[in-house]
């Protein structure tokens, strides 16, 4: 081999080493509500009603991006950190379009949008409890189906192979189904007997549609504990607090009932689809743990006091939400807070959750084999 050829070879191997590892998952497809939104609702409302949502203003985004992206957070959210772990770009919002800045969705796309529900829009319309500009999981699945030709066109492999190598993340969902009902004064009993079973059923039908398209690895995220959100204390207050957590029992009971039904259906679904790898992401349990042992997770002070808000006992105010006039400044150190804006967690907490979920995912036998070339995770010191 002559010297110029060996230099070229050396350069090529250096390039190969510096490339992020992509052997494991080729792309990330994300479905969910506001905790997973990377800009869709901000774009949607600007287009539909020329309204700039509060997440479109600083201090949203101040910790990481330095500008508001439409994430309900001071920085990156769970799906961003998962993408980082697998060497993939941050999942772009589908409403931003499949241009070169979003790599034509080659590495994935995010159809999650704030306000979304599990039960379909017509279900709430018939009940007289519908919320404007709200979309259901079924709509998100349809958006992704419509994007399939774009998502697959950039790939050298065939579409089925590409989908089989993708990581699908579905959830969290749930708060908006409950919220639209309790804001209409629906009784707890009716929510539990009429709405919850529909929520669990629609979650599973969404998963089924994705598997029918070709999804093979799905992270199913349950709901954050809705009875623990500062926003819930303010907008649906009831003197019904759990002694240990300080969260409201009635809303957490409702959330747990939804999870029980979802988990039961998920077991059946898994047995019917043995080739599909499912990771159940217990966001509920992880958040309760942070509330029970805040110090262990780096949270200081009262965990229910929101980092960015417009005043009041929990620093959550419906008239001045994070980014609105009157809520333009966040707490001094968001890394020490649990809640960013009264509904969503801070970047630091999302990073912990994502790190934990990636570990759990990589521990699954089928994924362990598929991802055996991923070295970053165990080499990196555990967060905190
Ligand atoms: C729900 O009840 C509250 C308190 O009684 C009332 O102020 C509110 O208007 C009711 N909301 C609806 C949508 O009926
Ligand atoms: C599961 O995968 C195996 C091996 O790839 C295949 O033979 C089998 O048909 C698959 N089963 C289902 C239910 O898809």
Describe this structure in words.
This is GDSL lipase/esterase protein. Its EC number is 3.1.1.49. Keywords: Hydrolase. It is an enzyme of class 3 (hydrolase). It comes from Dioscorea alata. This protein has 384 residues and is mainly alpha-helical. The protein has one domain (3-232, 239-292, 346-370): Rossmann fold. It is 43% helix and 6% strand. It contains 14 helices and 5 strands. The protein has helices at 3-18, 40-49, 78-85, 121-127, 137-153, 159-164, 175-182, 188-213, 230-235, 249-272, 283-292, 347-363, 365-370, 376-379, and strands spanning 27-31, 108-110, 166-170, 217-221, 277-281. It has a 5-stranded parallel sheet with strand order 2-1-3-4-5, sandwiched between helices. Helix 7 (175-182) packs antiparallel against helix 8. The longest helix is centred in the middle third of the chain and has 26 residues, at 188-213. Mean pLDDT is 92; it is low at 12-22 and 377-384. One 2-acetamido-2-deoxy-beta-D-glucopyranose (NAG) binds next to loops. Residues 184-185 line the site of one 2-acetamido-2-deoxy-beta-D-glucopyranose (NAG).
List key phrases describing it.
384 residues, Rossmann fold, five-stranded parallel beta sheet, binds 2-acetamido-2-deoxy-beta-D-glucopyranose, EC 3.1.1.49, hydrolase, GDSL lipase/esterase protein
């Amino acid at each position: 081999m002559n010297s110029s050829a060996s230099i070229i070879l050396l350069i090529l191997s250096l390039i190969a080493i510096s490339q992020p590892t992509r052997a494991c998952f080729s792309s990330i497809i994300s479905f969910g509500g506001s905790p997973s939104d990377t800009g869709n609702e901000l774009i949607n409302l600007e287009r539909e009603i020329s309204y700039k949502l509060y997440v479109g203003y600083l201090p949203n985004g101040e910790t990481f991006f330095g500008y508001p992206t439409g994430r309900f957070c001071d920085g990156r959210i769970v799906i961003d950190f998962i993408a980082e772990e697998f060497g993939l770009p941050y999942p772009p919002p589908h409403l931003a379009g499949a241009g070169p800045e979003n790599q034509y969705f080659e590495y994935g796309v995010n159809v999650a949008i704030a306000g979304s529900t599990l039960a379909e829009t017509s279900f709430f319309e018939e009940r007289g409890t519908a919320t404007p500009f709200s979309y259901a999981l079924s709509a998100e699945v349809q958006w992704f189906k419509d994007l399939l030709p774009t998502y697959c066109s950039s790939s050298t492999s065939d579409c089925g192979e590409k989908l089989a190598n993708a990581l699908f993340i579905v959830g969290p969902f749930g708060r908006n189904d409950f919220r639209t009902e309790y804001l209409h004064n629906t009784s707890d009993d009716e929510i539990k007997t009429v709405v919850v079973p529909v929520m669990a059923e629609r979650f599973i039908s969404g998963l089924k549609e994705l598997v029918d398209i070709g999804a093979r690895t799905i992270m199913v995220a349950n709901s954050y504990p809705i009875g623990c959100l500062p926003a819930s204390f303010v907008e649906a207050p009831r003197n019904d607090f759990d002694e240990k957590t300080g969260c409201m029992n009635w809303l957490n009971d409702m959330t747990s009932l939804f999870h029980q039904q979802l988990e039961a259906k998920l077991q059946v679904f898994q047995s019917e689809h043995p080739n599909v790898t499912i990771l159940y992401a217990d966001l509920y349990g992880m958040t309760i743990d942070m509330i029970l042992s805040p110090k262990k997770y780096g949270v200081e002070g009262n965990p229910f006091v929101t980092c960015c808000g417009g005043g009041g006992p929990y620093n959550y105010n419906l008239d001045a939400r994070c980014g609105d006039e009157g809520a333009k400044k966040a707490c001094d150190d968001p890394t020490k807070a649990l809640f960013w804006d009264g509904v969503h967690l801070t970047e630091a907490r999302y990073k912990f959750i994502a790190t934990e979920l990636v570990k759990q995912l990589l521990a699954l036998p089928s994924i362990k084999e598929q991802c055996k070339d991923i070295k970053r995770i165990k080499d990196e010191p555990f967060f905190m």
